Amino acid sequence: MKLSSFAPARLRPVALIAVLALGVGPIVAAPAAAAPAATSAVAVPAAVAAAAPTSALPARLGTALKSSKPTIKGAARVGNRLTAKPGTWAKGTTFSYTWKVGGKKVATGKTFTPKKKHLGKKVTVTVKGKKSGSTATRTSGSKKVAKGTFAAPKPKVSGTAKVGATLIAKPGTWKPKPAKLRYQWLANGKAIKGATSKKFTIKNAQHGKKITVRVKATRSAYKTRSRVSAATAQVVRKPAIRTQPSSVMVDAGKTAKMTVAATGGGLKYQWQRKAPGSSKWANLSGKTSSTLSFKTQAKDTLGEYRVVVKNAAGTVRSKSAILFVESTQTQPYPADTIYVGNYWMQVVGETGKVELDDSTFGLYAFLYACPLDDDVSSRPYWDLDSAYQGAKNKTWYAGTEWDEGVDSDGCGLLEINASVPKTQAKGGIWSITDYSGSQTYYPTTQYVAGLK
């Protein structure tokens, strides 16, 4: 007999499932009652009905929505945005969010930013998922809202680190905007008493030190934050020269050295030279320390030297010093070079020649001499002797001196002559020996290039 003969159509699936699941035999229908013919019923054993769990029902009859406990992403701080993370739910689930602080609803949406009034309270988010008519609601764990923090750049210092200059603190843009910014200037990391404004004028006490500024921000419900700028260069002041360079006398080919001592901090040096008879100072390439040192040449004689000292606070120039270079036989003065004898400033011009015979030249040059002081003599060259050395045989040929007169300044012109073999004339040198002032000075001899 078919079970369907007795069970109403709406009960047939349930009964069938129970039978198949529990392996019970056919169910016997109860005797017909005196009810209307249209009404029938099937008696299901209580054990069968109780043994059929809801989870065993087909999905089309309804199942629980898969869900997980949500979490809150981000630090719970005033001003910091929090994000709800639903977790793992059934694919296709849609969500809605409810944020609560201290148990009170404060916002909906996936994100929430705590405010000042939420400080110290606990925040949670409740996620409601929905799919195909099924819903589930889950709530996250709580987080306590702490004080907010500032996002702040490193402050900068504007201005030149020199005594007397004013520095200005540049705090940059802080987020959120602080209620108040405070400043403290520091020298070598130590607070400068009274230096608590945005501007600071450097005093002598900070000379040689590096300056920084500390900026402190405050705002209600936010942690106080401080940031310190990068340090300036060492504070300098206008250079001052304590020791001037001194004049130097050396033989040609030897090393000359001049030194300057200066104060001020952060100093840079540039040595300069002015040639005899010139008014223009020229920088010496690569000579940028407090000491000038170089190998001399005869042509350098009577050059003036000075050094320019500067830093961020200013520039100062030293007094000039004179370089006296004594000529040598291997390095004579070029013609027309002014040099110092014993008692006279002297210069020998270019050498000329006349043919005396087939084998001899008469060589000549003009020597101009002036006294070194106010003792003007009518014969400034009386004590000057000349000679000419042959280029190849190194033999000295005696010279003669001819008076060409004296000018109003006491400077005289002297013609010097020497008879020299033609083969020895070109490339030779003159010697000029100065005996003047021999009571005070020893005789000196200088050498000048001869016939080219």
Can you describe this structure in just a few lines?
This protein has 452 residues and is mainly β. It folds into five domains: 3-61, no CATH class; 71-144, Immunoglobulin-like; 156-228, Immunoglobulin-like, CATH 2.60.40; 240-326, Immunoglobulins (Immunoglobulin-like, Sandwich), CATH 2.60.40.10; 338-449, Immunoglobulins (Immunoglobulin-like), CATH 2.60.40.10. 4% of the residues lie in helices and 41% in strands.
Architecture overview:
Helices cover 4% and strands 41% of the residues. It is mainly beta and 452 residues long. The protein has five domains: 59 residues, no CATH class; 74 residues, Immunoglobulin-like, CATH 2.60.40; 73 residues, Immunoglobulin-like (Sandwich), CATH 2.60.40; 87 residues, Immunoglobulins (Immunoglobulin-like), CATH 2.60.40; 112 residues, Immunoglobulin-like. The protein starts with 11 loop residues before the first helix and ends with a strand. The N terminus is likely disordered. This is Ig-like domain-containing protein. Keywords: Signal. It comes from Isoptericola halotolerans. InterPro entries: Ig-like_dom, Ig-like_dom_sf, Ig-like_fold.
